[in-house]
Amino acid sequence: MTKVAIKDMTFVEFRERLAEKPVIVIPLGSQEEQGPHAPMGDYMLSEKLAELVGEASGALIAPTIPFGYADVFRCVPGGIQLRAGTFCALLEDAITAFLDHGLTHIVLFNGHTGNTALIDQTVRGFKQSHGIIIPSINIWKAIPVSLWHRLHGDLGEKAGGHGADPITSVYYHLFPDLMRPDLIEKSSANKAFGLETSGLSAVRYGEAEVLVPLDVFDVNEHGLIGGDAGLSNAGIGKEFTDYIVSHASGFIRHFRQHDSRGFS
Question: Per the record's keyword annotation, is Zinc included, yes or no (predicted)?
């Protein structure tokens, strides 16, 4: 089988693939809690999904950047959080390593939404310095509402949240032996200042939100932010996986046909 993960190639094998002018996919994830029932290393999902994307699209998959900007989870033991500057510098160096060898079609495959603002900051820097457009796919945000409702019916919106779907179902599909369904807890949000919390960054006051720097344990002692992991299963995880792979592979094939130095 043709190798797609760069970590599995000798440098001679990789050098031979340069003639294809491949798209390079850089997976990103995080080492953070995903509820009491799922492994903390969600970067494993980014890595596995990226390899499936490589097999479907012909892209080459860089080693996964396993740690992200995740200060809201710093209160939970076992996590590893990068400072904003560290994350940006690491991502910049990883991208530069491929640009140095003339590889200008690079796609970021991001499995941690907390990385999003720093990814944007970094790729804008490359646009200014190199004239290169580097797209980024947010793995979990790519799932359309229509698929949520097809898989979860009227509970579509209630099934999603941190510590629930889509990650819990995809874990059941890809890494079932690592799951602990016996530890599933219900998600319920604590109050702050006597006010309802809204996600991890705000409280509701009157008809508006007031931004406050919440940590995950401020909101829920089990690390759950919305959703119901009891609704998750491997069958749903396969559907999510198939969609993500199809979506990302289709974009990569499209992107390969266009100039990464512009929008033509």
Answer: yes
User: CB–CB of 9/48 below 8 Å?
Assistant: no
Per-residue model confidence (pLDDT) at position 264? 60
Domain count, the chain: 1
Q: How far apart are CA 35 and CA 185, in angstroms?
A: 8
- Identify whether the C-beta of residue 70 lies closer than 8 Å to the C-beta of residue 30: yes
Does the residue 224 lie in any domain? no
Look at residue 246 and tell me if it is in a domain.
Answer: yes
R_g over Cα of the chain: 19
pLDDT digits (tens, 9 = 90+) for 224-256: 999 999 999 999 999 999 999 999 999 999 999
Helix residue ranges, H only, 153-232? 156-159, 167-174, 216-219
Specify whether the CB–CB gap between 72 and 215 falls below 8 A: yes
In a domain, 228, yes or no: no
Let me know if residue 11 belongs to a domain: yes
Q: State the Cα–Cα distance between residues 66 and 9, nearest whole angstrom.
A: 20
Q: Is the pTM of this model over 0.70?
A: yes
| Closest listed residue to residue 95, CA positions, set 134, 144, 53, 137 | 134
Using an 8 Å Cβ cutoff, are 147 and 238 in contact? no
Distances (CA, A) of 155 to 162, 169, 230: 16, 15, 12
Question: Cβ–Cβ contacts within 10 Å for residue 178, how many?
Answer: 13
100: domain CATH number is 3.40.50.10310
Kind of pairing between the strands at 202-205 and 208-211: antiparallel
Identify the bridge partners of residue 197 per DSSP, sorted by sequence position.
203
DSSP 228: -
